Structure formats: C-alpha cells, structure tokens
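Hey team,

Sharing the F-box domain-containing protein run so nobody has to redo it. Sequence (370 residues) first:
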Amino acid sequence: MWSNLPFDVLAKIFSFLSPDSLARARSTCRHWNACVDTYPIATSFILLSLHHRPWFLALPTRNRGQHCYVHNPVIDNWHLLSLDFLPDPVRPVASIGALILVRPTNCTVLQLALCNPFTRQFRNLPMSNISRTNPAVGVVTLDSVQHSPNLNFRVYVAGGMSEAPRGGAMYELKLEMYDSMDDTWHVVGFVPTEFAVRLTVWTPNESVYSNGVLYWMTSARAYSVMGYEIDGHRWRGFGVPMADKLEFAALLCRNGGLTLVGGASEGEACIWELKEGDRWGLIEKVPMEMGRKLLGGKRSWGSIKCVGSEEAIYLYKELGSGMVVWREMEEKARWAWFWIEGCYSIGGNQVPNLPIKGVFLHPNLFPFTF
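Structure output:
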C-alpha cells in the first residue's frame, strides 16, 4: 500500500516526521526517496518547524577539531556531526531557518558565512563595505521566510574598529546592513559614539530582534541593554533588573517579546519580560534544585550561558554538564521545567566535557539555494 500512495499524499505524511526520521524514511526505497526529491517544499523546514521543536546545536568554543554536537529533543538523543567541510573553525552567530550564520574564529576582520551542518553546505557572504574588527552583529529574519523556501533575511553590523584616515584605528560609526534579497551590503545609518564604543567593547553576544527593534546586552557591570529601532533609525539604552548583581545575563525572544534571563551571586536565576515604558516584569524563577545541579555545587552563575527560541529557553554550561530547560508544552497553555542530560558518549565513544556555544535550529536535509 505504501508504495502505491501518490507522491503528494506521501509527502504530506513525511511533513510530520522529524528530520532524523525523514532521513531513514527516504533511505527505505527508491519510491520514498523520489517523493522527497519531487516534493521538497512539503518536507522542508517550513512544515517541519510547525510540527517539531528546534534542535540544540553545540559548537566547542575552542579549536578542538571540526565537529559539533546536536541534541534531538524528540527522542532525547545526542549526535556528532562533522564540520570538516568548513574552511575554518567557526562560532555560531544566529540560526536562520535551517541554516546557521557563522563567523570564523581565526580571523580578526569580520567575515560571515551560512552553513547547513546536515547537508554540509557552506557559502561565504560578501565582505562588508567597511573592514572592521570586533563589531556587534544582529540578524532580522523577515516574515516571508516562513512562507517561501528562499532565504529572506538581513544582517546588521554596528560598532567595531576600523582603520583611521591617518593611520591607526577608530571606533566605526557607520551602520551596515546585508540584504539577502540582493546579496549586497548597504550603509543604512550611523551609530552614536557612545553606543559604538559599548557595542565594540562590552557586547560579546549577538542581538535579539523583537517588535521592530534590535537589542544587544552589554556585559559591563552593571549590565544594560542597547536598542536600535530599525524603521525610525533611533538608538536608545535602558537598564535591567539587579544590573549590578547579575553574574550572567542574556536576551531572548519569547512569545514575540523581549525576555531577559540572569543569575545573581549565591542567588537564583530569574526570567523577566520587557513591558511598556522599558519596565521589566518578573515572570519565572529557575527551580533551585535544577539550578544547583547545573552549577555543580558552585555558587556562581558566571559560567552559565543561555539560548532561547519562541517555545523554549535552555541554560547550559559545558557539553557534559546537562541543561535546564523551560519549555512550552504541547497544549500551548503552559510552560514547564525539564532537565536534559549532557552529552557523555555517542555510539559508545566517550565525549570530552568541552565548553560550548549553543544555538537553536530546525534541521533540514533539503539542499538550499544560497
């Protein structure tokens, strides 16, 4: 019966499979493999992302070989992916659909690229108009990307150091934007000097986009937030709760709004949401027993990192330390806390406990046209 199903019906069924299940399904027979190739849109990340949670991808923060680790939340399993197709070691900047925007770790001048670790695709973006080191990077995924297999996004680059006219270096005040629609960089505005300095020196993390504004968190104690309103070309800054006491702080986007996660010395980790008038409202606290387990007996939150999506927030440390997860339940009416074990071994082989940088993505096996 299965071999006689029309391709459009079979493709609809395949759209409900997770990426690993789809990979096994297409290897079953020629008929199923041809179905996936004939109806790629029906099995692309557009539909897969509607039915499945994003996967957590972890890249070692030190050059420990060209590979990454991926956690499948459907079956709670870890996988090892080779990244030997990349020309250089990279760090993730942001996920864009089923792709990851990355930057090389062995180059001081900003260079961005797109890759799909599952299909082993890679492509460098064009170099920006201004050569700069250590700038802040922000990504805006346009709404149409959810309705088309083509990539539709913009990358904003602010701050950083560039060459001064008479030699030496200066803080760069021009704001540049890469548009995937024309594959070109444009100068779209200017950054106030104070913000350019903060973006260069105290912004180790990439941005969060929410309601028309790109936000960056500064790491200088006390923590603060910088925002760039894209349509109005306006910059503004404001504080965060417990700014001088937080040992780590991260910005996320949850339910379309700006969310802050932070942990204080010998205290709890909390989650706030931004309200009208740049006011923060406390919405949740990390359960104390899970927090102690994540910290491994230590009292400092300084080594904790955080990554989030619309439906989940992960707090993590090293690869084998486990993760505390606050996740939306399937009924969409409530969120619950979970513990995910760290990656100790894969296929019977022990995995070293490495420091990592995590990012969410919806994996896809369909080749993209960059």
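The two ends are 38 Å apart (CA to CA).

Ping me if you want the raw files.
A.
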